[in-house]
Structure to design on (261 residues):
């Protein structure tokens, strides 16, 4: 019941955000020869086609977007542009997959839309809405009963997977390896105690990253502090999980010795 309610909530949120965006720009307009190429229009068309189960057409649109990205239709650093292109091509593979269901394909298309929104505008209101939804989901997980925690944690990770590319493309590339490391480790957590700890770590990390983006020259001291803060949270997580694993193995050995007596 919890999972179904959360899925319904996310579906309503997704529809609302798409509708609000559609009121400000012609998001579903198709590119026609002789008209200026509007990258975000094409991006939203991918979502529309995917939601309508027109995966082949969505894939073709994504291929056109890759070509546009390779011809300077998006102003990003070389490393970030490479990530966007790789993610776009990965989205094509997901849409072409015969294994993934419609819901997973829509989630992948949504993740692509959020990433492109964030790449075009780091202060995107749409991305901010989804980041807030993720924080609310984390808070719900921290306040949930022990028996419902696994389901809540699964919901958090599903939502995090959707929002993660948008979060990553917004941040300095020097943070990427640490963010990726944390993301991988979060997906390997299994027991309830580690889940609670991980939710606290995620909330702390987002609070560290949730600072206004400035167009001014980077402040090296501030960035060093950010690296230290986020890196410290992630390192603490790794040490904690490692300690828990060591403690569990030690307990198993002790039990084995007792059984052998």
């Amino acid at each position: 019941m919890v999972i179904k309610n959360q899925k319904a909530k996310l579906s309503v949120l997704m529809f609302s955000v798409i509708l609000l965006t559609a009121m400000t720009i012609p998001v579903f307009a198709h590119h026609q020869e002789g008209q200026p190429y509007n990258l975000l229009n094409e991006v939203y068309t991918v979502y529309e086609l995917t939601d309508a189960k027109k995966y082949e057409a969505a894939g073709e649109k994504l291929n056109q977007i890759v070509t546009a990205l390779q011809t300077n239709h998006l102003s990003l650093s070389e490393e970030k542009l490479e990530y966007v292109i790789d993610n776009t091509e990965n989205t094509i593979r997901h849409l072409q997959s015969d294994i993934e269901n419609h819901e997973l394909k829509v989630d992948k298309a949504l993740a692509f839309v959020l990433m492109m929104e964030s790449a075009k505008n780091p202060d995107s209101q749409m991305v901010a809405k989804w980041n807030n939804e993720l924080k609310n989901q984390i808070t719900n997980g921290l306040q949930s009963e022990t028996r419902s925690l696994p389901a809540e944690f699964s919901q958090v990770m599903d939502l995090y997977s959707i929002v993660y590319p948008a979060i990553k493309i917004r941040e300095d590339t020097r943070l990427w390896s640490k963010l990726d490391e944390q993301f991988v480790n979060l997906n390997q957590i299994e027991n309830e105690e580690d889940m609670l700890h991980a939710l606290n770590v995620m909330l702390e990390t987002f609070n560290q990253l949730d600072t206004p983006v400035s167009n001014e020259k980077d402040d090296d001291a501030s960035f060093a502090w950010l690296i230290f803060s986020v890196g410290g949270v992630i390192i603490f997580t790794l040490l904690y999980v490692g300690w828990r694993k060591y403690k569990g193995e030690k307990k198993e050995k002790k039990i084995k010795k007792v059984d052998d007596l």
Summary: The chain has a mean pLDDT of 76. The longest helix spans residues 220-260. The chain is about 75% helix and 0% strand. Residues 122 and 215 are 11 Å apart (CA to CA).
